[in-house]
Amino acid sequence: MHVKQLPETLINQIAAGEVIERPASAAKELIENAIDAGATRIEIATAGGGKSLIRITDNGSGMQADDLDLAVRRHCTSKISATLDDIRTLGFRGEALPSIGSVAKLTITSRRQGDAEGYQVAVHGGNSTGVKPAPANPGTVVEVRDIFYATPARLKFLKTEKAEAGAITEIVKRMAIAFPRVRFVLSGSDRSTLEFPAAPDDPLTRISQVLGADFRDNAIEIDALREEVALRGFVGVPTFNRGNSAHQYAFVNGRPVQDKLILSAIRGAYAESIPSGRYPVAVLSITLDPALVDVNVHPAKADVRFRDPGLVRGLIVGAIRQALHRDGDRAATTGASDMLRAFRPGFDANNAGGAAQMQDTGSTQQPARSFFYGAGYRPDRPSQGFSYDSSPSRPFQSAGEGLAATSRFAPGFGERAQQAGFDALTMPTARTETISEAPSLPPVDDTGRYRLGAARAQVHENYIVAQTPDGLVIVDQHAAHERLVFEAMRKALDDKRLPSQVLLIPDIIDLPEEDCDRLMAHCAELDRLGLAVERFGPGAIAVRETPAMLGEVDASALVRDLADEIAEWNTAGGLRGKLEYVAATMACHGSVRSGRRLRPEEMNALLREMEATPGSGTCNHGRPTYIELKLADIERLFGRS
């Protein structure tokens, strides 16, 4: 078999398979070219989900005839010279236009600012018609028709027109967030017009245009710097979450990316604040020296590689947690409207007349939208009144048990808690006497002194109702106290070395030498968490002590998991995560339970402790510990506004 040179057209089609995966890929490359050209207005028109037509019109610098001729040739670009160490533009590979032209019908019409006439070049299936004069406005118009007509096999793998149109919309949204000074207009016969006006002075305005007006009221600003890496952006409070990760946007030096390291760091930062299956809303921008990040990992340029991934991940996790500690303990503003819908199914919170409207569908009414699970969730309505025993949120122990039982750890956890150094924690004082009737609440004039107000009542022996200056707060007493106990336990983890249990016979674990080196580099950190390891020859680790808090543990599996984590992230946080998981379970069993009547002073003490404890807005499992209803919302419920 002889080696031969492939034809230029086939080479371009092979390259196009990596660069242009779908119509949205072509739209992304063309929008990036327009931004690199200095455009302040970009209009995108599509038809057939981008399969039939993609037209990008911009008011950028434009191109001359010679530039147009080179632009449709492979590896021709104006954005870099001889090195990849200082990339400051979105495009740099010089592959997008020739790749598109090899699989579609590409036409480019351009005119430089100040020139008397414009020029046009067309490339159909890899064949160029040459540059010729053409009438044009200043800027560039790129038109792509019948994408993948030259490669029918690829065309068969495209999704429906609606799905492809949605992918282009998502690309435009990401670009709009990254470049708030640019006006974007997305239109076409296959969609309704979407416009993002320029917002040069306030990035949050543009973000709100994309994510919705509710994000502004529920956003926390991020501004952090570590070594040579800067992180800015906005994240949502934990109770403002979504059902998927589509509302997480990340940018590196202005480039929209979908990097696993960044998304993993966001998930880790919210680990204890958001329920399983829910996702935070975040817009993060990382700025660093271009030499410290490789954007040339893949032709699509959606993945990047950092020179120090541990630094970037630590910066993201630390900055988000610090922001949540500072300003995250508040209920989402969207909770009020959803709460009103829970009171009255079909309630229109935006009704100008103020009257609640019921959605009558015949024999039944439309179920309310759930505050906790958000839009689209339709829980089954109970056929009878509230029952503690049938409640899906019922804690492990049954109602009616006294606090003497509910305030203690579950069997086995007490011993572990003492061994782990948590025996000094202040737990609820046992009260075994029976309370025949709810205590009366004395008048309290302190509603304006505290963020969570003053306790007024307890309903269903689980929910504390507190009055604030401008509304009321409803607190889940078990979830709130669970968070308080867990935070006390976590503080104990930070304050001293955790007790450990010495193994009678050290556990010898065979590992690759490089894994042994990584583990020994973190041995001091592991020892502080109660895991004592030492080198046992060139390819083995001896485990002499394990954290007492974990009880019986598979030391071999634990060490191997830690070695894998250190290899990927250069951190041994997995062990701490396991310890915190045990602490969270202890806190759940050691908290004041549902079904326990509280005295007024106990309820107010719980509220004050919540105000002083970071992260008290959610429990250890990510569920909200309280919701807030403003007085204006209550008045709307009764049609008074």
Question: Explain this structure to me?
Answer:
This protein has 641 residues and is α+β, with helices and mostly antiparallel strands. The chain folds into four domains: 8-196, Histidine kinase-like ATPase, C-terminal domain (Heat Shock Protein 90); 203-327, Ribosomal Protein S5, domain 2 (2-Layer Sandwich); 339-378, no CATH class; 401-635, MutL, C-terminal domain, regulatory subdomain (Ribosomal Protein S8, Chain: A, domain 1, 2-Layer Sandwich), CATH 3.30.1370. The chain is built from 20 helices and 25 strands. Strands 1, 2, 3, 4, 5, 6, 7, 8 and 9 form a nine-stranded mixed sheet that branches. It has a five-stranded mixed sheet with strand order 10-11-16-13-14, sandwiched between helices. Strand 4 (118-124) and strand 5 form a beta hairpin. 40% of the residues are buried.
Tags for this model:
641 residues, alpha+beta, 9-stranded mixed sheet, 5-stranded mixed sheet, 4 domains, globular, 33% helix, 20 helices, 21% strand, Heat Shock Protein 90, Ribosomal Protein S5, domain 2
Q: Would you kindly provide a brief summary of this structure?
A:
With 641 residues, the protein is α+β, with helices and mostly antiparallel strands.
List the helices and strands and how they pair.
Blueprint: H1 8-19, H2 23-36, E1 41-47, E2 53-58, H3 65-71, H4 96-103, E3 105-111, E4 118-124, E5 127-128, E6 132-134, E7 139-145, H5 152-155, H6 161-178, E8 183-188, E9 194-196, H7 203-211, H8 214-217, E10 219-226, E11 229-236, E12 241-242, E13 248-252, E14 255-257, H9 260-269, E15 279-280, E16 282-287, E17 293-294, E18 305-306, H10 309-327, H11 334-343, H12 403-406, H13 413-419, E19 454-459, E20 463-468, E21 471-476, H14 477-495, E22 500-510, H15 513-521, H16 523-528, E23 532-535, E24 540-547, H17 555-569, H18 573-590, H19 600-612, E25 626-630, H20 631-637
Parallel strand pairs: 1-8, 13-16
Antiparallel strand pairs: 1-2, 2-7, 3-4, 3-7, 4-5, 4-6, 8-9, 10-11, 11-16, 12-15, 13-14, 17-18, 19-20, 20-21, 21-25, 22-24, 23-24
Helix pairs in contact: 1-4, 2-6, 9-10, 14-18, 14-19, 15-17
